[in-house]
Amino acid sequence: MKVYKFGGASVKDAESIRNLAKIVKAESDNLVIVVSAFGKTTNALERVLKAWLNGENKYITLLDEVYMAHLSVVMDLFGQDGEVRGKIDLSFALLRDYLLTSIKGEYDFEYDQVVSYGEIWSTIIVAEYLKNNFQQVYWCDIRETIMTDDRYRDANVLWSESTKRVRSIFNFRKERIYITQGFIGGTATGKATTLGREGSDYTAAILANMLDAECVVVWKDVPGILNADPKWFPEAQKLDEISYREAVEMSFSGAKVIHPKTIKPLHNKNIPLYVRSFLTPEAKGTVIKVDATLRKIMPVFIRKEEQILISILPKDFSFVMGDNLSRIFHTFITHGIKVNLVEASAVSIDVCVDDERSKVDSLINDFRVEYSAVYNENVELLSIRHYTPEAMTRITKGREILLEQRTRSTVRFVVRKE
Are residues 61 and 156 in the same domain? Predict the structure, then answer.
């Protein structure tokens, strides 16, 4: 049994879904297929949510635009077949009713209730199309299968209960192909949760772990894992294979090819992960596995944009270490802010985080009693794995370096955005 994961770019329109079906047709093993929301649907639903929470009636128009985009795909794939359209209409009606009748709650909670619909719609359409081309296809609502806590927008999986449900549902007794959603889960009380932005890779890894899969294949619009973002470095080269450790280091530094949480469930069961191109499915791509080696050592360049560099100093010039350090990081956790880089001195600590302005403002406000806190906005975090002097010069030349951090194999710079 294998787990296939198709991201938003691979299901952005009707032709993409036809291509997905061709890839599935070439596979004879049992499959669990994890599908993301179409194209930019998540971003579109975020705009719907923002307008709704702000009391702006334009959320209705914004949601209608999302509906028409999905209806266009349905009509292209199924023509006048009313059954599939009926399923999509019903699901959109459920969301519209929720927005019309619900008492608005906290942002993170409402985010998960609204944005999770993107994956529901995409998988309904993909499942129905595959049913027309294959026998033994089953659509599964992962909100009833992967159980999580109620930490909305970054939920933790309840592994014991989820494993029981996953093994019961994905049993391959009657079906050979299961279609389900990435990125989302559900609480015991029936509320939708999400596993973190771009979390569909993580969903695929969770299911692979629980089902003892042979492998996971992530289908993307790139030939594999590259040593740089081709939009940044057009001459970026493909890495044929990398280790789990290398993948974790890259994803933590900000590489967008694999979600940071993906590797651990696979490493625990020694399940290889392949990153392959849905544009050229015959190509081998990149494999992530336990005994991989970099056949050719080359610098790996990673850029993490939209960062804020926060500097924290105790007002009484006491040491930052010990109890102070513990309280500082507890405050970050309380505000739901993930730390991307830390640099500490005797009387100050510098922290680089994602630019989530409302959370950062609230954090700094909490620090004001005991600490002085200032920040630099509009900065980038640049990392190089297996760095060389030439590689460092290449990405920092002409840039203002605010902070540099170096280990044996990785160098990281916080620089002002160009």
Answer: yes
- The structure tokens listed for 318 are 């006491």
362-384 average pLDDT score: 91
Round to whole Å and give the CA distance between 224 and 217. 11
Q: Quote the CA–CA distance of 146 and 158 in Å, as a whole number.
A: 8
Give per-residue pLDDT as tens, 274-290.
Answer: 999 999 999 999 999 98
pTM of the model: 0.90
Cα–Cα distance for residue pair 204/255, rounded to 1 Å: 18
Q: Which two tokens stand for residue 395?
A: 């990405």
* pLDDT tens track for 326-347: 888 889 988 889 899 999 887 7
Q: Residue 366: which residues within 8 A CB-CB, separation 6 or more?
A: 331, 334, 335
The answer to the question of residue 239 being in a domain is: no
Residues ≥6 apart with Cβ < 8 Å to 307: 340, 352, 353, 354, 355, 379, 380, 381, 414
Same-domain status, 176 and 324: no
Last residue of a domain, one of 164, 192, 220: 220
Domain boundary among 220, 236, 261: 220
